[in-house]
Specification:
mainly alpha, two-stranded antiparallel sheet, 60% helix, globular
Length: 188
């Protein structure tokens, strides 16, 4: 097994495990290309899985359910989605090597309707698509300034960190959906 394939396999297992924790049905990892950008392809695959779950979650509940929170000390369903949108900009702007066009908390109190939240989330996902689409095995290894004051590190850390963040909050959304009697996207 080549070093590239070995690294891709390891990353696929890690990212696949993160997606699996979020409820994505377990499938064997796709064979990494023998040459080329196997690691970048694995990162994009994990991104697409998380992206699909979040998009489906945004569409899963009604306007009334967007204000739902199981207890007063946690975010509402809509606030989780707007938090994700803001954080997407922070993670992905770091990966893109530019200043974030929005602060992490930019949307939680200002974007409040289901329609606006879905649109804001979609815009943030599209913004991130550019960072994932541009990734190559070489660029993922480049040193960048990491988001959230974490110093410097490989560009991959920003992108994989974003995927982890999406999956973390997808887990929150799954709980909210189950409480409301809705089957989450990854379980359909």
């Amino acid at each position: 097994m080549t070093k590239t394939r070995s690294a891709a396999w390891g990353l696929t297992l890690i990212l696949g495990g993160a997606a699996g924790c979020a409820g994505t049905p377990a499938e064997p990892p796709a064979a990494a290309p023998a040459t080329g950008d196997a690691v970048a392809a694995s990162v994009r695959q994990a991104w697409q899985a998380a992206r699909t779950n979040l998009t489906g979650s945004a569409e899963a509940l009604t306007e009334a359910d967007y204000g739902f929170r199981p207890v007063d000390t946690v975010r509402t369903y809509g606030q989780i989605l707007t938090h994700i949108a803001g954080a997407n900009y922070v993670f992905c702007s770091a990966a893109r090597g530019e200043a974030s066009p929005h602060a992490e908390s930019a949307f939680e109190e200002t974007v409040t309707t289901r329609e606006a939240i879905i649109a804001t989330l979609a815009e943030s996902l599209t913004y991130c698509d550019a960072a994932y689409d541009a990734a190559t095995d070489v660029t993922l290894a480049e040193s960048i300034t990491l988001p959230f004051g974490q110093g410097t590190g490989a560009r991959a850390l920003a992108l994989v960190g974003n995927i982890g963040h999406l999956n973390e909050h997808y887990g929150n959304l799954v709980t909210y959906m189950r409480i409301r009697g809705v089957v989450p996207p990854s379980s359909r």
